[in-house]
Amino acid sequence: MPDSPERSDPPDPPDSLDARLLPATPSRSAPVPQGRAARSWHLARAVGEMAAGAAAQGLSQWARGERPALSDLMLSPANARRLAERLSTLRGAAMKFGQLMSMDGHGVLPAEFAELLSGLRDRAHVMPATQLVEVLQAEYGAQWNRRFRRLSFAPIAAASIGQVHRAETHDGRVLALKIQYPGVRAGIASDVANLALLARTPGLVPAGVDIAPLLERVRTQLLHETDYRAEARAAHTYRERLGSDPVLTVPAVVDEHCTERILATDFAPGAAVETLAREGTPQALRDHVADALCRLAVREFFEMRLVQTDPNFGNYLFDAASGRIALLDFGATEAVSDERIEQLREVGRALRANDPSRLAAAALAAGFIAADDPPAQTRGVVQMMMDAGEPLRHAGRYDFGASTLAARLFAQGRAQFFGEGYARTPPADLLFLQRKFFGTFMLCSRLRARLDVATKFGSQLDEAA
To answer: What is the value of pTM for the model shown?
Structure first.
């Protein structure tokens, strides 16, 4: 847990801000650590806390005659809570890395450990009001509080790079302001260097694997995501390419209130789509929402050629009043080349045909495997990809709620990642695209949807065959 001097509840707004500002509600609050030394200290302390926790647990198990592996001790649920708390306080690249490793509870980490880390996607600590005001003053000037009729100090959401606040302009327009944490961009390089050290934690990454390319991709991705002007342009482009849709909508960017560290859009009402997973939600509604988001994944990749690669469930808001889904957060938007589309289209055809030889050739062309990979790695990757194509080969509606595919892929992926001869990760862009498709699968699973996946992808796979 963070030291007590670093934590504080948001204070009441000072008198100079007057009644147009709504005070914050109590929340987990901690200043964003700034500067290389402060951020390095937090990450080093996270590793130290994990080591101390592992030592205590190990001594207890040894006293009972057990001989636990060091990796199992380091990746315990208690250590996951310690690490998640530190990353939540740090925010920035460190927290983003935790999100990438967790994959919503499925990935290369033990399931219980990853499940705890998955909470990082939307439950970061929030900035104290004093630090929030400093950012607002730096971006909007000393008279920033006159810009809006109302601005709530209580964030709607808090994630790795910034937190979102609701505001109302003097002409009554309701906005969502994504406000970037101070020092996040400046701290990216040192965060990534420190993450390279964290990755040496036993059980996180196989000793023979070079994760430098992935960390470099995290670094460049974070630099891109902290450029809110670039995100505003990406949101404009995405909104144009999506066009008019009966279910999906992208809130308009409000340029006059955007800066380098504040992104202003129209406020989108609704709740995260995962709330529809609650008991009592009609199957037809869950299928309708999942169908729209699967259709979106197909359109993004094959037609729009612009993929939002962060499948955070909180980026999809369902508005019960209108029945529409608002799409949020375009900092992780990835343009897709014609060559990559054709490569993955051939992968899809091989999966649908249940043809391992064809799939191996397609995987080699795309970069999932390489000619000099260890044979065990090649066999494992091809088998995992073949299994992942199960929904494409299923006739009629695929029952995501009853499917055990995600659990099977997790078990295979972990055995593959830590097994014989694993030496290389695929190109970073493939990992991010793969994350989007797997995230969509996980959302369909969460909603227990029943969808005809084969038909949905079929026309795109047949194109230019």
So the answer is: 0.77
